[in-house]
C-alpha cells in the first residue's frame, strides 16, 4: 500500500492501530523505481483534466507553510536507534522538534518513532497557526518525514556496506 502512495496514517486507521509506531513496524520501506517518478513537465499537458491513463486525479499538494531541517545521526546508539533531528525555521531561527528516533528492525525496514505532541508543545506554541496545524494534523507531513528518514538511513546503511567491501 505504501508503494502505491497510501498515507501511513490511513493505513494506521485501516489496521486499527492507536500508535503510529505499531503501524510502522508492519510497513516495509517502499523500493520505488525511477520509472515511477513523473516530472512536473509531464503534468503540464494535463492541466485541463485527468489523463486517459489515470482516470482519478490526485489532489494538488498543499502549499508550503515554511522551511524545515531534517538530520539523521549516521551513528546509531547502543540500542541501534538513529537520532533524528527535526527543526522548523521561524524568523531566521531554527526551532527544534526533539525526540524522534528511527530503527531498522529488519533489512530494508525503517521504523520512525515520533514523540507525543506534548514534547513538541514548547516549539509548536511559537509557530504561526498554519505551520502548527500542518505539524499537528497533517498525515502527509508525517508520511513525508517517514519517507525522507527511511531514505537517509538506507543511504547510511548502503554507504557502510560499500565501505566495508572496500576494506
UniProtKB/TrEMBL annotation:
GO molecular function: DNA binding
Region (Disordered): 40-76
GO terms of biological process kind: DNA integration; DNA recombination
Keywords: DNA recombination
SUPFAM superfamilies, per database record: DNA breaking-rejoining enzymes
Tyr recombinase domain residues: 1-30
Pfam family, one: Phage_integrase
Alphabetized InterPro entries for the sequence: DNA_brk_join_enz, Integrase-like_cat_sf, Integrase_catalytic
Record protein name field: Integrase/recombinase Y4QK
Amino acid at each position: 500500500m505504501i508503494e502505491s502512495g497510501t498515507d501511513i496514517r490511513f493505513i494506521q486507521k485501516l489496521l486499527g492501530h492507536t500508535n503510529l509506531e505499531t503501524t510502522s513496524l508492519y510497513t516495509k520501506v517502499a523500493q520505488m523505481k525511477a520509472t515511477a517518478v513523473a516530472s512536473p513537465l509531464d503534468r503540464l499537458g494535463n492541466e485541463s483534466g485527468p489523463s486517459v491513463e489515470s482516470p482519478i486525479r490526485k489532489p494538488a499538494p498543499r502549499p508550503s507553510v515554511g522551511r524545515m531541517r531534517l538530520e539523521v545521526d549516521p551513528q546509531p546508539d547502543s540500542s541501534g536507534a538513529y537520532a533524528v533531528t527535526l527543526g522548523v525555521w521561524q524568523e531566521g531561527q531554527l526551532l527544534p522538534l526533539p525526540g524522534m528516533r528511527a530503527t531498522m528492525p529488519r533489512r530494508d525496514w525503517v521504523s520512525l518513532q515520533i514523540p507525543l505532541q506534548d514534547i513538541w508543545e514548547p516549539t509548536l506554541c511559537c509557530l504561526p497557526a498554519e505551520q502548527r496545524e500542518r505539524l499537528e494534523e497533517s498525515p502527509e507531513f508525517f508520511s513525508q518525514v517517514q519517507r525522507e528518514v527511511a531514505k537517509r538511513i538506507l543511504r547510511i546503511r548502503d554507504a557502510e556496506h560499500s565501505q566495508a567491501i572496500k576494506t
